[in-house]
Amino acid sequence: MAADYAAPADVDVWSGYFVGIAGGYAFKDVDWDINDGGETGDFSSDDFIIGAYYGRNWQSGNFVFGLDSSFNYIGLDEDDDLGDLEAEADFLGLSRLKVGYAVDNTLFYAAGGIASTIFKVEDTATGEDDDDWAFGFTVGAGVEHKFSEHWSARIEYAYFNIESDELEYEAGPGSDVIEFDLEGHIVRGGVAYHF
Q1: CATH code at position 114
Q2: pTM of the shown model
Q3: How would you classify the pairing of strands 106-123 and 85-103?
Q4: pLDDT value at position 1?
Q5: Is residue 169 part of a domain?
Q6: How many domains are there within the chain?
Q7: Which residues form the Outer membrane protein beta-barrel domain (predicted)?
């Protein structure tokens, strides 16, 4: 039975490819800056998240090294604090290097790498909008347990920070630019299949 699964001693448990689904909660804070200090502000956006993750592990003794990537829906959509502007960043990607220590079929790991999203801004008064990829960094840690030969469950924490380039939009007679700094904390759990 799955509940009785135990990894044999001195056996490579974690090497190989995996793919999984994950869900949890994201606590997000956004700073915004129009025209390089002309107007600034901030807002918070806390939402449930859902996504998928995938990657590859290599095990050497008790140490596990891996590549771990995910794409997530984070549902950032704000217009209350921005006047005629509406800001969106629905997608969050995390591409990370992972280092862990395995105790039988339980893996404790830390991970860090690149965080990415697509910022979009729209002036609802003029209909003008702009969007662009933005990149930053992410760090975190977690624990994963194999409850059968091919299936595992994990819970993890991740911090991310992403700063946008200038997004340009037409505001009345001229054009303005806005920059965003997105910072967040994620707590999520997932289930994966290992090939």
Answers
A1: 2.40.160.20
A2: 0.89
A3: antiparallel
A4: 44
A5: yes
A6: 1
A7: 6-195
